[in-house]
Amino acid sequence: MMNELKPYPAYKDSGVPWLGEVPEHWVLLRMKTLLRERVEKGFPDEPLLAATQTKGVVRKEQYENRTVLALKDLHLLKLVRCGDFVISLRSFQGGIEFAREQGIISPAYTVLYPNNLQNQAFLAWLFKSKPYIENLSLFVTGIRQGQNIDYEKLSRSALIVPTLLEQAAIVRFINHAERRICRFIRTKLKLIKLLEEQKQAIIHQAVTRGLDPNIRLKPSGVEWLGDVPEHWEVRKLRSLFKLHGSGTTPLGDDYYGGDVSWVMTGDLQDRVLSRTKRTVTDKALNEVSALRLYPAGSLLVAMYGATIGKTGILSMDACTNQACCVLAEPREDGNVVYFQAVVNIARPELVRQSYGGGQPNINADVVRSLRIPVPPKAEQHIIVEQLKVKGTFLDEAVAQTQREISLIREYRTRLIADVVTGKLDVREAADRLPVESDESELVDEVETLTEGDEEVVDGLEAITEEVEV
Q: Does residue 271 contact residue 305 with C-beta atoms inside 8 Å?
């Protein structure tokens, strides 16, 4: 059906760069003609709201761990009613947000409501379309973190307005397309999960039982490990490497931005590490005694927070911070890739030994004392080669599936843009659509599968500053 869509019979020049030509019978109206600003305060008992780029404006409690909570002067926050639109501090990046809940939000935000509720659903799609979001950059004031949209200027900008019947057809068509696309993405995400589970099962079997399913086993004496092949050893990690160490975090801006790779736990992604987010200078190496270069081929293990047990193998010489344990120079020609695979499988055991509150830790001795299965070195190499072959096949399957998801999301973005700006006529197609389920189901489906809510911002951290001005 979507491939059968055609343009409208006749077009006119809108005179608006981001719109270009629009259907001849569509009208252009100023934003302030369609929407009014809501400035209602004095509702401290209403729930706090968060403006998100993927879910619209929803209750902040859904993002308790991702936003800053401020409970001061709640009576000065703005009221948002269900169905309102909110221009947030990130709207120039993600569009104007639609409110799905009633509550209160930062006075730094602009709250709008449509004069005619029948325009509401169409405007919600228009405000999140790619052309409109790109257009918002013309109304941004400030620099970097201080950027915001100048609503006084934006209110005088033009919006396209189809007839109410066409708006209803457009909304119905996009909702239908969203359901189909979300079902496709959900199926692909399930496939990725199955492929990743299959890969982990293959690795677990290979590094704990070997490649021969008929091999005789013996108890390992290690609870998390169970039985291992009879001819394998079980040894502590410390005995498999000649050099152990860690690092520190240099204090001083002049220590950063050099040519020396500096590893933090966030750089460790259970694979070979070829680049780091940050670097340090030669001065840092010379003046900070706890910093030293570790050679390429070293195995790093994270010891902090959510990254506990994450690993990386250096492909270059690098130093690290205090949250990474370094195991360098394998003894007896041991295969560091095999050791990494075992540590990855043993991650739940490292997490189990962590201590602390919201950000638990382990120390280097926990890592070095981890007991792992050790085949003869020739068998280590064979296992690594077999895992490489099987892993490559599964990785390619995952990558292909991810590309399919990316393509369908790109298609979704283009389709919505073409439909809400009148480049495609969906009136006949919408008439042929079957009756579908409640719209709330669509909301849950779309938002669960929308690509990343990279940054959730509710502006509450700005309340004190805004109030005191």
A: no
Rounded Cα–Cα distance for residues 205 and 268 (Å): 23
Query: What is the token pair recorded at 445?
Result: 């489906």
Strands 56-59 and 49-52: antiparallel
Structure tokens at 196: 């990743």
Task: Tell whether the model's pLDDT for residue 450 goes beyond 60.
Answer: no
User: Confidence band (pLDDT; 50, 70, 90) for 387?
Assistant: very high
For the purposes of burial, counting CB atoms within 10 Å of the CB of 202, is it exposed (0-12), middle (13-18) or buried (19 or more)? middle
- Give the C-alpha separation, 285 to 261, whole Å: 11
* Domains of the chain as residue ranges with CATH: 2-184+406-468 (3.90.220.20), 236-374 (3.90.220.20)
> Quick one: pLDDT at residue 452?
45
What is the average per-residue pLDDT within 223-239? 96
Angle, CA 135 vertex, CA 129 and CA 137 arms, to 5°: 120
Joined together, the tokens standing for residue 332 give 């007896």
Handedness of CA 122, 125, 128, 131 (dihedral sign): negative
Closest CA to 179 of 438, 466, 469, 424: 438
CA atoms of 426 and 432, how far apart (whole Å): 10
- Which residue, 415, 409, 435, is CA-closest to 2? 415
The letter for the amino acid at 261 is: S
pLDDT of residue 357: 73
CA distances, 115 to each of 33, 157, 297, 330 (Å): 8, 17, 65, 71
Q: CA-CA distance, 460 to 69, in Å (whole number)?
A: 6
Residue with tokens 């030509």: 21
pTM: predicted TM-score of the whole model, two decimal places: 0.80
pLDDT value of position 193: 97
Structural tokens at position 91: 């709207």
Asked whether the beta carbons of 234 and 290 are under 8 A apart, the reply is: no
The strand pair at 103-105 and 148-149 is best described as unpaired
| Tokens at 162, concatenated | 């189809």
List C-alpha distances in Å: 466 to 39, 141, 457, 469. 15, 17, 16, 6
